Amino acid sequence: MNPVVRVQLSIMMFLQFFVWGAWYVTAPNFLQTIGFDASDLGNTYSVGPIAGLITPLLVGLIADRFFSAQKVLAILHLLGGGILFAAVAVMKGESPSPSVLNWGFFMGYMLTYYPTLALTNTIAMKNMSNPETEFPGIRVLGTIGWIAAGFALTFTGFETNAGMFYMAAGAAIALGVFSFFLPDTPPVQSDEKISVRQLFGLDALALLKDRSYAVFLISSMLICIPLAFYYQIASRVVELSRLPIGTTMSYGQISEIVFMLIMPFFFKRLGVKWMLAIGMLAWVIRYALFAVGATDQIRWMIIGGIILHGICYDFFFVTGQIYTDKKAPPAMRAQAQGLLVMLTLGLGMMIGAQVAGQIEGEHTTDEAKAFNAQVVEKTQAITDANLQGVPEETVAALVAEKDELRHQELAAIEWKQLWMKPAIFALIVLVGFVLLFHDRIKPSDAAEAV
């Protein structure tokens, strides 16, 4: 690969995930302070999966056929950055509406962002001489970008205020402008018509005739229900324990890189079934650690649960992608991977976001709600004080009062009961999977794909 192109693609992938990591995990730490409740946050984390279900049409029918991929990427990120800047203006207004922010701004933003996940992969692969060997080195820059965003949140102090959205919006616009200078990636010239059935991978449903693959696909969708709890709630456990939120949450992505490097070693010895099972077991252990650690604010348990993200993600999701690639006929592999993503990060995560919001609401005590009302009031007072040019000492005192109220709010939530529910659910999925999944793919066959 041309060294200049490598640098361009590396910057593109870094910024692509920096934008996402700048707000996605820590958003609840700010949104709750402006009036979002548990069900509102459930909707915040539902709009992304909904966008993920819709956008295959955008990418498959428009971007791949009519416009150069880098130009579509540029326009989408510029639009997304503009939407985020507009969202912050609403957030800073008096009594911002969670419904308007969720279904207007966040939904609009995710409709611009989700297609770019596929577009960046397309641009990268089409400008490589050997994608199989070159793509992993570019893709890892995305994970590093997410990690860098977490550290930047802590360094700037944006992890609990609107600054996170300013940072995401700025990075999105920077990537939008940069995308115009990426290597030209013209649309595919083809007379072949692509059906909606192909776009959503429905032809790959034929794989469900294989009982083990059907068990795997259903288990994958179900395990994404507890996955939503992690993205939606875990950062507030970190906040409760007074750990740096952005940096601590980044440990999950750091462990993801580490476990990705050692995956081939385990693949050769365990095979697909037990790799997947260990991945699901890690979910059970992680949420059990949160259940005890959050209740008593035991930091090592909370950090341990976050570090387990590497096993949770790599051993289950990456293994699942490799397994799907092995099971699907060559002509159906792209559709099979698309169906897997749609059922997991689309349907599974959407259901999970709603369930997480419902369960969080059930375990948010009246005491926690009372403290939250004071936090919202104090947040508005800080915004007004900054607009009025009140002395810094006064603003600092208001911030300290708000932080203490916020800590009391989080401490009043029934964390043990909350986290044990996804832990038990993940355990049920694990047991069902182990009992019903019987595939004859040899460990050595699967390891060849890693």
UniProtKB/TrEMBL annotation:
Bilayer disposition of the protein: Multi-pass membrane protein
Compartments reported by the entry: Cell membrane
Pfam families membership: Nuc_H_symport (PF03825)
SUPFAM superfamilies: MFS general substrate transporter
Lineage: Bacteria, Pseudomonadati, Planctomycetota, Planctomycetia, Pirellulales
Gene Ontology cellular-component terms listed: plasma membrane
Transmembrane annotation, as ranges: 7-25, 45-63, 72-91, 103-125, 137-158, 164-183, 213-233, 245-267, 274-292, 298-318, 339-359, 418-437
Protein name, UniProt field: Nucleoside transporter YegT
Chief localization: membrane
Assigned keywords, A-Z: Cell membrane, Membrane, Transmembrane, Transmembrane helix, Transport
GO molecular function: cytidine transmembrane transporter activity; uridine transmembrane transporter activity
InterPro entries named in the record: MFS_trans_sf, Nuc_H_symport
